[in-house]
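User: Sequence in, structure out. Go.
Assistant: Echoing your sequence, followed by the C-alpha cells.
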Amino acid sequence: MYVINYSKLEVKIYSVHPSDWLDYKKYLQEWQRTDNPPAIPGNLVSDKTLNVEAPSDTLTQVDIDLSEYMDGDYGHFIVVVTPPRELMKNEQERYWRTVQTWVQISQIGLDAFVDHSEMVVWATSLKDGVPLANVTIQAGSGVFGTVTGEDGTARFSIPGSTSYLTAQKGADTALLPRSTYAWGDENWYSYAVNDELRWYVFRRPADVSPG
C-alpha cells in the first residue's frame, strides 16, 4: 500500500481459491449496496488495525505481510484496506477510500492465446522464465483439463464460456482471468478468418537511380 497522512489502516485478509474468482467479481459489482451488501468470498483469516509510522505529507510504502496465512510457499488472498472510520468525514467516503485486490502468490507464469481454431497456453517459471512441463491446465471450474509439454505449452480447442484458467504444479496454483475488470464478463472465443485487402507502399531512396 501507499499512504499519505494516515496513522493507521484497517486490514482484512481473506484466504480464497481460484474457484472463488467469479464470486469475487460479483462482490466488486455489488459491494457498495446499502440494502443487501454481498459477503466477501473466502475465509477471513485476519482482521486487524495496522499502525503506520510515516512522516507527514510524504507518500509512504506500507507492506502487508501475508506469509503467516500462506499454504506453504503459495496462496491466494483477497486483501481489503480501509482507513479507520474516525478518520473519514462520512460513511460515503469509505467507498472511494477502500482498496481491495486479489493477491496470488505463485511461481507459475501463465499466458494464453487464441486464434480461429485453438487456444495455446504457455506456462513458465517466474524465477527464470524456463518453460514448465507437466503443469495441469484447467478451464474455469469445469472438468476440462490438459497438461503442458516439455516446451511449457498446451494446445486445445477453445473452451466455451470460460472466463479464467488455472495452472497447477504440485501445491502451486496460478490464476489467469480473461479480464480483471469487475464489470467485464468476457470469455475466450475464436476469431473468424476473413480476407482483407491491404496496401503495401514503399519509397525508393533518392540516391538510387532507376534502371
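User: And one key feature?
Assistant: Residues 2-105 form one domain.
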